[in-house]
Write a structure and sequence with these properties.
There is one protein chain. The chain is of the alpha/beta class. It has 2 domains: 280 residues, Rossmann fold, CATH 3.40.50.2000; 166 residues, Glycogen Phosphorylase B (Rossmann fold, 3-Layer(aba) Sandwich), CATH 3.40.50. 48% of the residues lie in helices and 11% in strands. It is built from 20 helices and 13 strands. The strands form 2 sheets. It has a 7-stranded parallel beta sheet. Strand 4, helix 7 and strand 5 form a beta-alpha-beta unit. Helix 5 packs parallel to helix 9 and helix 12 crosses helix 16. The relative contact order is 0.09.
Length: 535
């Protein structure tokens, strides 16, 4: 009996040691998010799960708890962090240090400078201080011996500081068009004449007035970026003074994965180490639950309209009641069925053709053969998912980059845009009917979906390829622009322009003086000749 127990214990020990050795040899990836990551958290965790399943990776995800955080069951190791104790008197954290997403503030201000004025950036610096000052967390991560970091770049310069302090090569993740702060600090030329900047709400083909607006916003963003990076650097200096400045870290990200492509956003000038991989989370639709499937099929030939305001913009208590009532009234006049992500408490008397749900399997519903139209806030994730499945979009942008996303869809003939501040039942009904009855919108959306299906590699496949490259080889210097030695005025050839101006002025001056000298000599000779003639 004793020998049998010893053999069992020996076998268990052997299996444990073998598993430990396998884990020790597996590639290790650290995912770092900003204070609030929204849907990016799910996207990058899904990517991490594929790396675990297909590449044998060990993936650790650091996420910060918010009032929108949900429990997960994942093969990725998820480390939940909070700001405890929370900053004194802050309205953005509860007593446990959980972040309160300012959804109502986003609805009121539309994001951008309104958020800055309301003090919504202050929690970012509290998060930065907490992340960089936690020596126990740093030592715990250092002992794991990661091979690379996947850093969500959205207001997450302190994540870059931590990754550099750990000595890790960095794959950056940009969940939107590659414009704004991250792009301004990188080698990518974000030209104000052709690329609407972040939160501008401008269309891709801008007139003179719009280009002037865009240029002014780019300059304002540059100023705000400098002020923001100065505060980040003050925190960095206290905890990791040997790590380079935040601006330099942004410019030295080894590779950036941009979650868009040139079917969902205007083509852009991107250096080789910035890869527009596309919709990482997109996939073919899976079977719906019996309840959803029965509702979808009950729509018959008329089909289904899907309504969702996404994750960050949707909160049962903050969506304006006027908006809900206008859409409910418009939906009641349609012969189509409607799946609407909205609390039943806000719509006590829903029309018979409207199904209210608290949660929506968005990819699967958009990919259903009965879906005809998507009513969306036009976050980049929702735009990509709609176009992946060939569904036109009625855009109701709420904040930040959603305005320019909507403008691009309308420019390409993939949807229509409504101003949420001027919604009326007739305008909403007219837009819905136009999108549902005109074949051109659906044909163009399905054309793009067919183009995407012809690509032999999915966006997730491309992202995994580049992550593997960075994990295996570290810095991919052959992809980097050779411009780190240039200052901004050298990058934009202002020094060359000044040299040309000096040369031009000098040449004109010399020619002018030579001509003047020749003219004076000619006059003297004429005077002398006249004098001789009189003699």
């Amino acid at each position: 009996m004793t020998s049998s127990c010893c053999r069992v214990l020996a076998l268990l020990l052997s299996l444990t040691l073998g598993a430990a050795l396998d884990a020790a040899g597996a590639p290790r990836l650290l995912i770092l998010h900003p204070l609030y990551a929204g849907s990016h958290e799910r996207v990058l965790r899904g990517l991490g799960e594929r790396l675990v399943a297909e590449g044998g990776y060990h993936v650790t995800q650091l996420r910060w708890l918010s009032d929108k955080t949900r429990p997960v069951n994942s093969s990725v190791e998820v480390m939940d962090l909070r700001l405890a104790p929370p900053p004194a008197g802050s309205q953005f954290f509860d007593a446990a240090g959980v972040y309160r997403v300012p959804t109502s503030l986003l609805w009121r201000t539309g994001g951008g400078l309104g958020l800055v004025a309301a003090g919504a950036l202050e929690p970012l610096y509290a998060h930065c201080e907490r992340l960089l000052s936690d020596r126990d967390l740093f030592e715990s991560l250092r002992r794991r011996r990661f091979d690379a970091a996947l850093v969500d770049l959205s207001t997450n310069e302190c994540g870059l500081v931590l990754a550099r302090a750990l000595g890790l090569p960095v794959v950056g993740f940009c969940g939107k068009r590659f414009v704004g702060a991250a792009a301004h600090a990188s080698p990518a030329p974000s030209l104000a004449a052709v690329s609407p900047t972040f939160a501008s709400g401008l269309p891709p083909a801008m007139n003179t007035w719009q280009r002037l607006q865009n240029a002014a916003m780019v300059l304002a963003q540059q100023l705000l970026l400098r002020l923001h990076l100065r505060r980040v650097d003050a925190i960095r200096e206290r905890h990791f003074p040997r790590v380079p400045s935040a601006e330099r870290l942004l410019g030295e990200v080894d590779l950036v994965l941009v979650r868009t492509d040139f079917l969902a956003a205007e083509p852009a000038h991107l250096p080789p180490n910035v890869q527009a991989v596309g919709c990482i989370q997109c996939r073919e639709a899976r079977p719906l639950s019996p309840r959803f499937e029965a509702f979808m099929e009950s729509a018959g030939v008329d089909g289904v309209v899907v309504f969702s305001l996404g994750m960050t913009g949707y909160d049962a208590d903050t969506v304006p009641q006027e908006l809900i009532e206008v859409f409910i009234s418009a939906f009641s006049k349609l012969k189509q069925k409607v799946v609407m992500q909205m609390s039943t408490a806000r719509v006590p008397n829903a029309p018979a053709n409207v199904l209210l749900v608290d949660w929506l399997p968005q990819l699967d519903v958009l990919g259903h053969r009965q879906t005809r139209l998507f009513v969306s806030h036009c976050g980049m994730g929702g735009v990509l998912e709609a176009l992946y499945h060939g569904v036109p979009v009625l855009c109701v942008p709420i904040f930040l980059d959603q305005g320019e996303n909507a403008a691009f869809l309308e420019y390409r003939g993939l949807g229509l845009t409504l101003d949420r501040h001027r919604l009326t039942e007739p305008t909403v009904t007219a837009a819905l009917r136009r999108l549902l009855t005109s074949d051109s919108f659906r044909q163009k959306a399905q054309y793009l979906a067919e183009l995407r299906r012809l690509d032999p590699n999915s966006a997730a496949d491309r992202a995994i390829y580049w992550i593997n490259m960075v994990v295996r080889f570290g810095r991919l210097d052959h992809l980097r622009m050779i411009d780190a030695h240039l200052s901004w005025f050298q990058y934009w050839l202002i020094d060359v322009a000044l040299v040309l101006v000096v040369i031009t002025v000098a040449t004109i001056t010399v020619v002018w003086r030579c001509c003047g000298a020749c003219l004076r000599r000619s006059r003297r000779q004429q005077v002398d000749a006249n004098a001789v003639g009189k003699m």
